[in-house]
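W.,

You were right to be curious about this one. When I first looked at the sequence I had no strong expectations either way, so I just let the prediction run and decided to look at it fresh. Below is the sequence, 145 residues in total, followed by the output.
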Amino acid sequence: MFKHILIPTDGSDLSRKAVLYGVRLAKASGAKVTGLTIAEPYRVASMDAVLVSIGEDEYDEESRRISDRALEQVKMAAEAAGVPCDTVREVHDQPYRAIIDSAHALSCDLIVMASHGRRGISALLLGSETVKVLTHSTIPVLVYR
C-alpha cells in the first residue's frame, strides 16, 4: 500500500488529529512517516528600525520552538504506534510548495494533512495551503477533516 507518508503539521488541534490518523494509516500499511513543519522566513514589516517589534534572532528562536513542539507530537505518536519516524523543519515563503517539494525529495507516496474547512468568502480570501497542495501535487493527498 503506502511506504512513506509525509505529515505536514502546524501543531494545531486539527493538525494533531491528522497526525494521529496518518500514523494509524502508516501502522496499518507498514509505512514510515515524516513529520514536516514549515516556518515562514523572517520579514521586516517596517523600514524604520524603531518600529520593528521583534528581531530576526527572536523570530527564529520562537519559530523553532513552535516547530519543535509540533514535531514532537509526531514523534510521540509514531513511537507509541511503533512506526518509524523522521522529522523535518523547512523555512519557505510558500508552505504548500515546501510540502510538495519535501514529499518529492523524501520519495513519499502519500501526504496526509488537515483541512481547516473554511468555506465561502473566507476560503477565497484566506486561501488554504491544503487546497494549494491538492491543486499542485502529483503525489496523492489525503485530507483529514
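Here's what jumped out at me. Residues 56-81 form the longest helix (26 residues). And, maybe more interesting for your project: The chain has a mean pLDDT of 89.

Coffee later to discuss?

I.
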